[in-house]
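Slide 14.
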Amino acid sequence: MQTTFTIYIPGKNRCDSASALQNSLKALDPELPYSQMMRIRASGNAARECTDIYYLCTDGENNLVSRLWMGWGKHERAVGNWGNFFTCPEYRGQGIGRQMLSFWQNDLKTRQNLPLALFCTAGEEGLAKLYAPYGFRPALKNTTCGPLYCPLGNSPESFAEFCEQYYTLASSLTFKPATLEWRHEIDCLFKFAMLSKGLDYLPKGMTSLEASLLEKDTHIEIIFTDTNIPVGLAVLHENEKKDVRIYPSYAHLI
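Slide 15: predicted structure.
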C-alpha cells in the first residue's frame, strides 16, 4: 500500500491530507466534546488562539490512514496537549503507528517556539508503554498510565518539579473570562496538578473546560496570577456566588 506522511497546520498551510482529516472527522462521535473540538480546530476556526499541528498518513486515494496531533495556546510559556492518535483498524498491525510516532518525533526536533511540555491522558498501560520511548512518563506518583507528562526544552524531568517551577509566587489574582487559548493549561496541567494533590480541578456542574467552552457558558472564569499564570477555575452561579477551584499555593489570595 502506498502511504504519504504530511503535516497540516490550520491557518498556516493547506494540503490534500487536510481534507482527508476533515472528512474522517465528520461522523466521529458527533455528540462528544472531544470530537466537536477536533472538528473546530482541524477546520482552522481556532487558529487565532491556538497552534494545532496534525501529523497525517493517507493512502493513494487520499483516505486517512492514521493521525496524530499536538496543540497549545498562542501565548508565552504555553503547555501543550498531545494525542488524538488513531490508525484505521484495517491498517493496524502494519507498523504505521510507529512510523507516525517517529515522523512526529523527528519533526519535533526541528521545531522552535515549542511549549514547555506536552500532556496526554493515556488510560491504558499499553499506551503508556508505547509512548514511553518518545519521552512520555506518568505525571502522578505510583501510576503506570493515566496522566502523562513529556518535558520539552529545559523543563524538568518530573511532573512534580515542573509544577514547582510553573506555579510561582504571586501577590494578587485576576478573574478573566475563559477562552480556548488557555484550555490546555486548565484541562491538562491544572487537572493533573490538582489530581496529584487529591483534589478536583472543576467547580460543581462542569465536566471539563472544553465542554463549557463548546456550550458557550459565559459564567466560567480562569483565575490568573499577577504574573499571568493560570492557577484555577471559577463559576458564577445564579446566587452570584463563585464556586472556585484553585491551586493550593494561591488559596490565601482569594
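Speaker note: The CA atoms of residues 197 and 211 lie 24 Å apart.
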